[in-house]
Amino acid sequence: TQSRSSAASDVYKRQNEYLPPLGKVSMGYLSALAILIFAIKLNKSRNDMSEYCASLIGLSVILLYLCSYFLGPYYQLISDLNTFVLLIIICAFGYVLSKIYETRIVAFISLIGGTLAPIFLISIINNAPFLYLSFSLLICIGAAVIAFSIRWQLLAQISFILSIGLVEFVLLQAHTSEAITAVILVHLFFYKMCVNLYFQWFTFKSNRQNCLIQLCVSLAFMLVTLEQVSSSSQQYGFLLLFNAFLAAAVFLFCQITRLKSLINKDFKIIALLVSGFFTGTALLILISIDLLSLVWGIEGLILLYLGLRFNFYNVRIAVSYTHLTLPTIYSV
Length: 332
Description:
Layout: H1 2-18, H2 21-45, H3 50-74, H4 80-101, H5 104-116, H6 122-127, H7 129-149, H8 153-173, H9 179-203, H10 208-229, H11 233-256, H12 265-286, H13 289-309, H14 313-331
Helix pairs in contact: 2-3, 3-4, 3-5, 4-5, 4-7, 5-7, 5-8, 7-8, 7-9, 8-9, 8-10, 9-10, 10-11, 11-12, 12-13, 13-14
């Protein structure tokens, strides 16, 4: 046993002596490319082995991510910025492969690897957290597009969860001097979630209960993250009013254009409720306590009128319950 272990250690020492770090990384990249080429050729010649070929393609993408880690943070052969660009290329390459061969496993690996691998790039995370967040936004958008292209809704839901986690992680690293950038990115992530939710609900007819849960989580995400990036409560309130205006503009656009008959009625109801939600929360922050009940009453009457005017039964019920319970909660 001792002789075998000593022989193994001798082999390891010789490998370290004759194969420098760059050679090891190069061998890893060549191995990944060889596996990828083999999988592509096998997929062309044997259609019955498509699942096996998809696994091999996924393995090659994993090896590319690992080699990039050893090339950058581990051996420090290239800078963190160059490693970051390399990871972007690998992620885009993985998305292209998943689109061409319609492989779920490759799309999943590209999403997870593309969003989590840059975390090991300490200088990027510490010095340019919003660059990483912008890159993650593009990855999540790409994952949503691939999910609908290969009709795999789970990938879109994973992208939804990752979006929330990444934003919260980066905001812990963010600097107050970049608050405007943070506000813009938070809005982009939120509306990316809304577009993703729209296609799940109305285009692909996903489970409505899951879609409603995602909608509630998205609204809670918006409230929490906007408060984190706002410099004052007044700015926070005006940002909520801005989003209420956007939701109301979407609702009015659906009513006054020729698209009125083409857009689902549930979508209009959701836009109206979201606008009322943001408006009520903003008023809670901006309006004086003495005038709060009066303003809430006026908002309730407006929503009731809109619900009656456009025959939105769910809006009338939601407004009634909300304005019956709010005074009780407020008095407590």
